[in-house]
Write a structure and sequence with these properties.
Length: 803
């Protein structure tokens, strides 16, 4: 893989895929950003921003981009620019771990560009980077498996621009899955060269999907990589090559696996700690996709969900091109037949698992953990496998044409069968098509996305292949034409998949957020009845009680009585009004954004003793919570209520007669404050908390305690937080079911709550050690095994036509 030929091929792939990526995402060259800004400005706070002619464009489901992914990247950039590593996110969900949430990909190497570049620029460049990485790795994989140079480049184009890769751009699902070709390459190189360099490469290949941040996809990549390893372990060595040494191969693979765990430990250990604090378990059952969505392999439409073929986008996207479907069966005639069989089997297994048919699906349905993963995302494995099969099929036909022999009938039968099956599928799609309305002319992007375009490209692919089989196209010319055809097919299908906007149009200023931010005192805000989307506060530097991500169990329990659900934005006005407890006040929620579009504004206005209208802009109404409690306050120790049972704690917290100012709920008796931690100066007459300074990973306060008390900080309790009173560490308390607290004696104190997770420290040490070992192993190489001259002549394939 590091030979001069491989380096040359990689450069060609970078140039080719990079040029096609720039063609696909060309607006980034003029400063525009691929971002669905309409999903933000469709909400009431932007009525005055979007203008009267606002019409959201038709596109696939992209909610995660505005509720999680872009806000996370912007938060990372702001934190790094401010000199802090964003280990904790104080802005959402009453405070939540950021490094521990695997999906943030904080330690994923390609995400380092967000540390150094403006968010909008890094976001745009990441589209190009992912596409090029996917294309180059698929190219090298196809070449390593025996494809010719042109066919390998075709495989790179097919994978880089296939429906699944295009539809999952910016999501951690793609960041995780694009390394699957490298996993195959690592195992293949380790089988051929049992050296330290191969061990390091394999370890890196298996670690990167874990660092990328999507645990389900990482499990899929790891499982498929293990299948490939077992397949390689079971096969005899190739003809003419020295014995590989199965035992040594297995031992070095195990060593690579341990190194991979070490490399990923910086993300895995905080992630496992995070998973332990969740309500989720391995009891979910996602179920198979509807069988009709198998039409995704024939539908070029990525522009809506469901699209014109009634396929959900992005979850079910799978298009890999029409010529791919016709030439993939020819892979069985390639000299590397055993790998062709493997990748064909992978496609068959994936189809069974995804669409709920066959014995493989039965296995996944009854095996714990496997049946709780959204296995529909295995479609990326099918797309990569089809790209490899297409490369092998084109190579086989290219070699056969170069031999000058008359083609055996089997060369016609396999593509004919594929053409028949594809034609029937396209006919079904045409029969039940539901074309998306368009606003442009006939020859527009809309034209290339309709079901009829699938039929046109299928016919063109059949003509191209038929001419090659009939000997009307020379060997070298066919490979070039196949590459060009696949590029046109895939690029026109993925072109402008996502809208492009100016950077200023990404979360543009809105009067509502400007007003809520003017209050200098630490406070939280919340959207009521979907006045705006989840996590939007993060983009405006506001703190919120809600947000959209995987939510901690305690956070869910606290917010559920106010109508919060992890998959829907904000709180519910009816539940807020009906609630008679002090939970909303305890959460430091001072402002609630409602709208006249629904009943939220009227509901809050019906309780004037609790909520007061303080701002109006168009249909938006902002209400102030008159009973809100400060971010931090002191409760006399005499008011401590000891309830060891968590259910009892939650029930008491939700009771209408619970007053968090006078009482505090604890699991056990609070410790007596240390004498050396006693406050300075005379005992104050009145208890007071002042100078509350909230930073990314710590909170500083100045407390005047007239009597022994429990300091309550309205931020979620989580492993890794430490309490420092007057510079000395003191036991951290979990108070009022889920918040941070500390016991204080009389006097004036300086208190700091600091987030220093031990899991991250240990993980970072393990990852650093594994990285140093990999660096040392990288220089330990063995010469590639060479076959006998006769065997080399029999199996070599020239990259150019013979003269």
């Amino acid at each position: 893989m590091t030979s001069p030929a491989a380096v040359s091929l990689a450069k060609r792939s970078v140039l080719l895929v990079g040029a096609l990526a720039l063609l696909t995402y060309w607006p980034v060259l003029f400063g525009k950003v691929p971002f669905p800004a309409d999903l933000v400005t469709q909400f009431p706070p932007w009525e005055s921003v979007r203008g009267p002619d606002f019409r959201p464009p038709a596109h696939a489901e992209m909610g995660d981009l505005v509720t999680e992914l872009y806000p996370w990247k912007a938060f990372t950039r702001r934190a790094i620019a401010g000199g802090a590593m964003p280990l904790w996110n104080p802005h959402l969900l009453l405070g939540a771990p950021f490094a521990g949430d695997l999906q943030t990909g904080l330690f994923y190497p390609p995400n380092l560009i967000y540390f150094f570049l403006p968010t909008a620029l890094a976001w745009s460049l990441s589209f190009i980077l992912r596409t090029v990485l996917a294309g180059v790795l698929a190219t090298l994989l196809a070449k390593a498996l025996g494809a010719t140079r042109s066919a390998a480049l075709t495989a790179g184009v097919l994978f880089a621009f296939c429906g699944w890769v295009t539809a999952f751009q910016t999501r951690p699902h793609l960041d995780t899955s694009l390394w699957l070709p490298l996993v195959f390459l690592g195992v293949e190189r380790l089988r051929r060269r049992l050296d330290g360099c191969s061990v390091a490469l394999t370890a890196l290949a298996f670690a990167l999907p874990v660092l990328a941040g999507q645990p389900e996809n990482a499990a899929h990549v790891t499982a498929v990589g293990l299948v490939f390893f077992l397949y390689r372990l079971a096969l005899p060595p190739q003809q003419g090559a020295p014995p590989a040494g199965r035992l040594r191969f297995a031992a070095l693979f195990a060593a690579a696996g341990l190194l991979a765990l070490g490399l990923a430990a910086v993300q895995m250990l905080p992630g496992l700690e995070f998973i332990g604090q969740l309500e989720r378990g391995f009891h979910l059952f996602w179920g198979p996709k509807p069988l009709h969505e198998i039409g995704a392999f024939l539908s070029r439409d990525l522009g809506a969900t469901p699209n014109s073929a009634d396929v959900a986008i992005p979850e079910s996207a799978a298009y890999t091109g029409m010529l791919t479907l016709l030439v993939a069966p020819l892979a069985i005639l390639h000299r590397n037949r055993r790998d062709a069989i493997l990748f064909a089997a992978l496609v068959a297994c994936v189809l069974q698992i995804v669409y709920g048919r066959g014995p493989i699906y039965w296995v996944f349905e009854h095996v714990p953990i496997l049946n709780s993963i959204p296995n529909g995302r295995l479609l990326v494995v099918a797309d990569l496998s089809l790209a490899v099969l297409a490369a092998l099929g084109i190579s086989a036909l290219e070699e056969e044409l170069g031999a000058g022999r008359r083609l055996h009938p089997r060369w016609w039968l396999l593509p004919a069968a594929a053409l028949t099956a594809s034609g029937v599928g396209v006919a079904v799609i045409l029969a039940r098509a539901n074309p998306v309305p368009h606003r442009d002319g006939l020859l527009s992007l809309w034209t290339f996305r309709q079901p009829l375009s699938s039929a046109a490209f299928l016919l063109a692919a059949a003509v191209l292949l038929g001419l090659a089989l009939a000997g009307r196209i020379r060997r070298g010319r066919f490979a070039a034409l196949a590459l060009a055809f696949c590029a046109v097919d895939l690029v026109t299908a993925s072109y402008r998949f996502i809208p492009f906007v100016r950077p200023t149009e990404i979360f543009p200023p809105a009067p509502t957020f400007r007003f809520m931010k003017e209050d200098p005192a630490p406070h939280r805000v919340a959207s009521v009845d979907m006045t705006y989307g989840s996590s939007f506060e993060l983009m405006y530097g506001l703190d919120s009680a809600t947000g959209y991500t995987v939510v901690l169990r305690r956070t869910t329990e606290l917010l559920s009585s106010l109508g919060f659900k992890g998959d829907a934005p904000g709180l519910i006005s009816e539940r807020i009004v009906q609630s008679r407890n002090r939970l909303l006040d305890l959460m430091n929620v001072k402002y609630l954004a409602a709208t006249t579009w629904n009943r939220s504004a009227a509901e809050l206005a019906s309780v004037p003793e609790h909520f007061r209208l303080v701002f109006a802009d168009g249909s938006v109404r902002v209400f102030e919570n008159l009973l809100v409690l400060p971010r931090a306050f002191l409760v006399p120790v005499s008011g401590a209520l000891i309830l060891p049972d968590e259910d009892a704690q939650l029930a008491h917290l939700r009771a209408p007669d619970f007053d968090p100012v006078k009482s505090v709920i604890l699991s056990e008796r609070p410790p007596t404050p240390r004498r050396d931690g006693a406050g300075s100066g005379d005992r104050p007459a009145v208890s007071e908390v002042s100078a509350v300074e909230q930073r990314i990973n710590d909170v500083s306060l100045r407390v005047k305690a007239a009597e022994p008390g429990i300091l309550v900080l309205s931020q979620m309790h989580y492993p890794g937080w430490k309490a420092l009173v007057d510079g000395n560490e003191t036991p951290l308390l979990r108070v009022d079911y889920g918040f941070l607290g500390a016991a204080l004696g009389p006097g004036t104190h300086t208190v700091r709550f600091v987030y220093r997770p031990e899991s991250l420290r240990i993980g970072a040490l393990l990852s650093a050690a594994a990285f140093l070992i990999c660096l040392a192993l990288w220089g330990v190489r063995r010469p590639a095994p060479t076959a006998a001259p006769r065997a080399r002549r029999q199996t070599s394939t020239p990259d150019r036509p013979e003269s």
